[in-house]
Design goal:
The protein has 343 residues and is α/β, with parallel strands linked by helices. It is built from 15 helices and 8 strands. The chain binds iron/sulfur cluster.
């Protein structure tokens, strides 16, 4: 009997399991998967199957289980890695012990504005806008944002997008106006070599699971350009560039290491590569785009090794700094903060 799509899904899951248990090689699994049966699956089904076939993952990770394929691997997101680099002790409270953090106004604003910008691109109708005058385009962009507490920021974004649309129309590049990725969740598994960081040598190579919702990715030809929206204020300082480059490098690693099924799900072809990245701070009317920096990608891989080392040693040291720690949700239970306050 010709297999149904469900049969093919199960087939893929079993093959991936065999790979994990070392029974067959990835190459053999791929050959088995590129069969007539698999071609019967649609893009969403292939994506679902490949995600289901990935190892389980968790922040409550135990490195000593790394050789047991039935145990979860370490989950890493852009936020979790950023939190670890900010203060390993804060990471432990937040991600391993799952203690809740206070919701700040900045977090609330970030969520609402991100949702509004996502909706803007989902609702933008190119065929409707292309016959409008410049003034009408601006009005149209404004009309696609909600009425709430962040209208000043929406007006800045609307002006920016209206100008971008006008420029794209003049250059006959309207097909590049809407991002190819708009707030999509990417997953991938990568291996961190034990010797990638000379100061944090690991007991072995580790497979980890990276996950992240990518704000937006624009494409120009085969060039992919991830763009991050930030609702705070930009500061012209080298640490801000370094921080943003690391966030964007995390996205590059996610996209670059995604399986063919994940890429297909989001409309990315094999020859599309991240060549640039950028960030947009509407509150400061600041936008920056630059070619990707391989050195930053390497640095993020090293940061992941540092995180793994903390798990290996079960050592998540506090990085106490009175000025910023005063705003930490865990100030009251942090030993370093308590010592400083009473010391
Ligand atoms: S108070 Fe400071 S040192 Fe303590 S967990 Fe928070 S950020 Fe880290």
């Amino acid at each position: 009997m010709y297999p149904t799509n469900i049969d093919v899904k199960v087939h893929r899951l079993l093959l991936m399991k065999d790979v994990r248990h070392g029974l067959i090689s990835i190459k053999e699994a791929n050959i088995a998967l590129s069969t007539k049966e698999e071609n019967n699956m649609n893009t969403d089904e292939k994506y679902e199957a490949v995600i289901k076939a990935m190892d389980e993952y968790t922040y409550q990770w135990h490195p000593e289980n790394a050789l047991d394929p039935s145990k979860p691997i370490l989950k890493i997101t852009k936020s979790s890695l950023g939190s670890f680099k900010w203060c390993a002790n804060k990471y432990r409270f937040s991600y391993i012990e799952r203690l809740p953090q206070d919701q700040t106004e900045a977090m609330r604003k970030g969520t609402i504005v991100h949702n509004a910008r996502e909706d803007f691109f989902n609702d933008f109708d190119i065929s409707k806008a292309e016959n409008m005058s410049n003034g009408e385009i601006l009005e149209y962009c404004n009309s696609l944002f909600p009425v709430d507490d962040y209208m000043d920021m929406y007006m800045t974004i609307a002006s920016f997008e209206a100008q971008r649309f006008i420029d794209a129309k003049d250059e006959d590049k309207l097909d590049e106006f809407i991002p190819i990725i708009n707030e999509e969740c990417f997953d991938c598994e990568i291996v961190i070599p034990h010797d990638i960081h000379p100061d944090f040598s690991l007991a072995r190579d580790y497979k980890v699971h990276l996950q992240g919702i990518i704000d937006r990715v624009f494409n120009e030809g085969n060039n992919l350009i991830p763009m991050e929206l930030k609702t705070g204020l930009w500061k012209e300082a080298s640490y801000k560039y370094t921080g943003m480059r690391k966030e964007m490098a995390f996205y590059e690693i996610l996209i670059n290491n995604s399986t063919q099924e994940v890429r297909e799900k989001f409309g990315l072809t094999e020859d599309m590569k991240v060549t640039h990245w950028g960030w947009y701070y509407p509150a400061s009317n600041f936008i920056h785009v630059e070619p990707l920096k391989k050195v930053t990608i390497k640095s993020v891989m090293k940061n992941i090794a540092e995180l793994i080392k903390a798990y290996e040693d079960n050592l998540f040291l506090p990085k106490y700094w009175a000025k910023t720690c005063a705003h930490c949700s865990y100030f009251g239970i942090c030993e370093a903060a308590t010592e400083d306050t009473w010391g």
